[in-house]
Design a protein that fits this description.
By secondary structure, the protein is mostly helical. The chain contains one helix and no strands. The longest helix has 23 residues. The chain is elongated. This is SPW_0924 family protein.
Length: about 45
């Protein structure tokens, strides 16, 4: 029962934060046209 109460309190604290961030929206700007490297480059052939 304590775990359920703790989960409810955590959810009640997290939801207003999520809604506030959603209402504010993302900051203005553009994404980079260059792709990000996701792996370490190997030797040149």
């Amino acid at each position: 029962m304590r775990a359920l109460a703790a989960a409810a309190i955590g959810l009640a604290a997290a939801l207003p934060l999520v809604f506030t961030i959603s209402a504010v929206g993302s900051p203005p700007g553009e994404t980079s046209p260059k792709p990000l490297l996701t792996t370490v480059p190997g030797p040149k052939q």
